[in-house]
Design brief:
Residues 61-324 form the MGAT4 conserved region domain. The chain crosses the membrane at residues 20-37. There is one protein chain. The chain has 477 residues and is of the alpha+beta class. Helices cover 30% and strands 24% of the residues. It folds into two domains: 80-303, Spore Coat Polysaccharide Biosynthesis Protein SpsA, Chain A (Alpha-Beta Complex), CATH 3.90.550; 335-469, Sandwich (Jelly Rolls). The radius of gyration is 25 Å and the shape is elongated.
């Protein structure tokens, strides 16, 4: 505890510095405090003293109260929701899609967004999703009229338990008056973004136990076809790796994916700092504090912003995601695997980055004849297509000038890890790239390794921008 009090002393000294570093320190301090309270290490007297010494006494009681809530068995916030349409099913689904919507001064895109979600999903995909709409406006007449429209347009989805419409009553909201004006935002802007943080917190809290994964959309979004299948491929490819948030759009709070088990903590986080900054900025802090330092964003984007008028004052909002593709079903499967290379790696551009759908790549120093880059699958796979690209737009000569693509079987253990003892060549690289179709028709065995072999040394460095593999059956879950 002595360390905690020293931290508080430092926090007092930082008052006069800029808001952003101070907030980062405060967030870090409160999360560490959370660990103490969850494990029962903070005594009641300590909690009282923390309330008394907080920089913002009016907010500190809410923060400590929130941390107390984290110590209960469920970790969820005690809110009694209104069910406006539909009821949750007992069986957990694969994915919950969350939307929060308020009355707009100009335009309303919620119905189009819901329609896009359902229209762009196959019958099999629909069985694995649940859409939760939080009508976060206190105008009850508007809510009632919108619920009637939703019920009229999507009755079978409501009956099937695929669509729920909820509301968190106004009495559960914290005060939205006299808020801190960080970044010199006008009062109405601060009130809007602060309420939005609370809206999302209550939505996340409700969705905690509905599915294994959760993705947030805004209420003015168009979806790519079969987006769930694309999501599942990406999630499967990340098996065994740590992540907090995966991003499937580069805009705002659109297409941000979480494990459902993390939703209570994220909900509490948004509530604690609801008046500090916009939600998409808070998400960056949340991700970093849970030890995911880098953005993990996938291309192509699966969701596109379609609204023309913002929910804030009806201002024009023409933002578009130029990485969006309407048909993204051809995302590679990339089965779980280990990657090895004897090419000298530059800095942190390691081998795994060539095998990811994220916008990153492997970068190595000039390779020599016989150097290799090998992918060893966790389980033998039937591969239908392999596509490998090297070089980049700004380093177009850092390609594999001379190389071959091989597939192998018969795994054996070596000092450098598992390798295949038998390989067959599929083809040669041309202009740094190779694509082989119908691999499963050309190879009789289930593939255990894919290997790139350098057939002639080069002076140029080597970028392997992407390795894409498609299987002949859906990846196992």
């Amino acid at each position: 505890m002595r360390l905690l009090w020293k931290s508080l002393d430092k926090m007092r000294c930082l008052r006069k510095r800029s808001a952003i570093p101070f907030l980062g320190f405060l967030i870090t301090f409160l999360l560490f405090l959370n660990l103490y309270i969850e494990d029962g290490y903070v005594l009641e007297g300590d909690k009282r003293q923390l309330r008394e010494t907080s920089v913002h006494p009016a907010s500190s009681e809410r923060y400590v109260h929130t941390f107390r809530d984290l110590s209960n068995s469920s970790g969820t916030i005690n809110v009694t929701y209104r069910y406006l349409a539909g009821t949750p099913l007992n069986r957990k689904k694969y994915l919950t899609i969350g939307l929060s919507s308020v009355k707009r001064k100009r335009g309303n895109y919620l119905l189009e967004t819901i329609k896009s979600i359902f229209d762009q999903s196959s019958y099999e995909e629909l069985k694995e999703i649940v859409v939760v709409v939080h009508l976060a406006d206190f105008d009850l007449v508007w809510c009632e009229n919108l619920v009637q429209e939703i019920t009229r347009k999507f009755p079978h989805h409501i009956i099937a338990g695929r669509l729920l419409v909820i509301q968190a009553p106004e009495q559960y909201y914290p005060s939205l008056e006299g808020l801190k004006r960080n970044y010199n935002d006008p009062e109405d802007r601060v009130r809007f973004r602060s309420k939005q943080n609370v809206d999302y917190a209550f939505l996340l809290n409700f969705c905690t136990n509905l599915s294994h994964f959760y993705i947030m959309l805004e209420d003015d979004v168009r979806c790519s076809r079969n987006f769930l299948t694309a999501l599942k491929k990406v999630i499967t490819s990340r098996e065994g790796s740590y992540w907090v948030m995966l991003e499937f759009s580069k805009l705002g709070y659109i297409g941000k994916l979480y494990h459902s088990k993390d939703l209570p903590r994220l909900a509490h986080f948004l509530l604690m700092f609801y008046q500090e900054m916009p939600c998409d900025w808070l998400l960056i802090h949340f991700r970093g504090l849970l030890a995911q330092r880098d953005v993990i964003r996938f291309k192509p984007s699966l969701f596109q912003h379609m609204g023309y008028y913002s929910s804030y004052k009806g201002a024009e909002n023409k933002l578009k995601d130029d990485d969006f593709e309407e048909d993204s079903i051809d995302i590679p499967d990339n089965p779980p695997a280990s990657l090895y290379t004897n090419i000298n790696v530059f800095e942190n551009y390691d081998a795994t980055k060539a095998y990811s759908s994220v916008d990153e790549y492997f970068w190595g120093k000039p390779p020599s004849t016989g150097d290799f880059f090998v992918i060893v699958f966790n389980n033998a796979s039937k591969i239908s297509k392999i596509k490998i690209t090297t070089g980049s737009d700004d380093r177009q000569n850092d390609i594999l000038h001379h190389g071959a693509l091989e597939v192998g079987e018969k795994l054996v253990g070596t000092k450098k890890g598992k390798q295949c003892s038998s390989f067959i060549t599929l083809g040669e690289f041309k202009n740094g790239n190779i694509e082989v179709q119908d691999v499963d028709h050309k190879i009789a065995f289930d593939i255990e390794c894919v290997r790139i072999v350098v057939t002639a040394g080069q002076r140029e460095w080597l970028i392997i921008r992407s390795i894409s593999l498609w299987t002949t059956q859906p990846p196992s879950q």
